[in-house]
Structure formats: structure tokens, C-alpha cells
Amino acid sequence: MTSPRRFLVQTPALEISCLEWNPEGPRTAVLAHGWPDSPESWRAVAERLALAGYRVLCPALRGFGATRFRHARAPRSGELAALGRDLLDFVAALSLRRPVLAGHDWGARAAANACGLQPGVASHLVLLSVGYGTNDPSQALPLAQARNYWYHWFMATPRGADALREDRRAFARYMWDTWSPAGWYEEAQFEEAARAFDNPDWTEVVLHSYRHRWGLADGDPAYAEDAARLAPAPALAVPTLVLHGGADACNQPATSEGKEAWFSGGYERRVLDRVGHFPQREAPHTVADAILKFCGTASA
User: Fold this and answer.
1) 275 φ, ψ (degrees, to nearest 5)
2) Given phi > 0 = left and psi -120 to 50 = alpha, else beta, which region is 141?
3) What is the distance between the alpha carbons of residues 220 and 208, in angstroms, rounded to a whole number?
4) Which of 31, 71, 91 is nearest to 222 (CA)?
5) 8 A C-beta contact, residue 38 and residue 195
6) What are phi and psi of 15, to 5 degrees?
7) In this predicted model, what pLDDT tens digit does every residue of 12-48 receive, in sequence order?
8) How far apart are CA 78 and CA 82, in angstroms?
């Protein structure tokens, strides 16, 4: 498999950096990464999908990698409605016709929100490591899950914000070390991902994202209408596959249980044994095969 092409996509709000495999593929899969991670997290899955005939696009989210805000005065918002709108803008800018939308962590929330804001935008939706409908700041949280979210609350304090600003790599590495079974990654993988955190807007986007999702920071007025449409979370008609690591120590597998009523277009859920929070990195062949089985071949 050849190395992916890197290019930039202009949208109204962003200049989005993107990796692309198999540009001439008859069907497109857009794979959105999570936090704290990078587009390269999808490399092994992307190569498998490309070999199966898909054109594969892996954009860098706002605040990550070479993606930049186009307007200096734009709020460095990380709100989830903005992530969904960014993905829709990306699809529109490339004139993509009903791609597969797949996402991990933040990327899963972005992909689901894109489908909520624009029904019919995707042929299939694939969500990794996230339970749909868990964006509501008033949601009830089991104490075990609240403990897992310690970093949300920590970043809402001045001390937590300082910790992120002072050593973003150490902060992110602790998540990698504690969200999945020990020894799951190689140093070179983390270093590759961490380069995406060198974006000058990364820290402020991250802090705003976690503060906003619990009602501790105001949103960007530009996304107020989208946010209103996503609260409460709308039911989705797109066929949806959920993949959740059975050893996920960030979002417990229980957070994605019992969600069938949210999906009217077909729904499947698989729990991956001995896999933590990063399935596309920890079990890329399993993830790729599951996507291909659920979404069909590129010629379908």
C-alpha cells in the first residue's frame, strides 16, 4: 500500500488537513479521529478499506494537526455541534455523495451529529468507543463512569487547565496509559499522534470542548442553531454499527448499551474482548473487517 496523499480542504470555518488513500475508489469512507489522537490512528483500517476499493479520507479535527481556523477572531470552540458541522462542511467541500461516516471518540460524536443535522448525508454510520445520546450535560452518570471522567472535571479547574497547557503530551500520554490494557501501543505510535497536538489551537479547543459539554462554558453563537437541533439527541435513520472495547476504561461499554431505540435504519453493536478505548489502533483488522461486513464492498 502506498503512503496516503496529504492535502488541505477549505470550508467556511476551517482549512482542514486530510489524509487520503485510493483517490479513485468508487465509494468513500470518511474516518474521523478522537481525543487525544490523530488522523494516523486510522492508518491500518484505512489501508484495509482502500484495498477493498474504498476511497478513504481521514481529516484532522479542529485544533489538531495542520488544520487551522480561517478567521483569527473565530472562537476556538470545541463544542460537539461544531464538530458535526465541520464534518458536514468537509463532505460538502469535496462534493462527497453519501459516504460512510466512521468516527472514534470525538470523531464518533462528530459523525453522529453530522447525521443528526443532515439526515441522508451518509450511507452508513460507524461509532467507536462512544454511546450515542451521551452529550447531554444533565445526564445521570453512574459513579464508576463519573470517576472515569475525572479529566473532564480536572480541566474545568484552573489547575487542570494549567496542567494541559504546561505539558500537553504528558497529559495525553496518561490517557493512553490508563484507557486500554497495559502495553497496547509502541512509543512511535504515540509520538506520531502527539505531533497533532502541537497545533497552536489544540489546548484551547480541548479545554472549551470539555467545559462546554457540561454547561461550564458558553458555545460559539455560530453553532447555536445546530446545538439546539441536537438537544435532545435526535433519532437517526442511518444504518449504524457500534464497536466498543470490552476493556475500555474511558467510556465503559455500558455507556453504549440499550441504544437501539435511537436508530430506525438498522443497528448493530459489537463489544470487542480485551480491547480498550482505541479499537482502530488495538484491533485494526477486526475493526476494518466489521466495517466492510456492515457497509459492504466499495462496488456495492
Assistant:
1) -110, 140
2) beta
3) 10
4) 71
5) yes
6) -110, 105
7) 999 999 999 999 999 999 999 999 999 999 999 999 9
8) 7
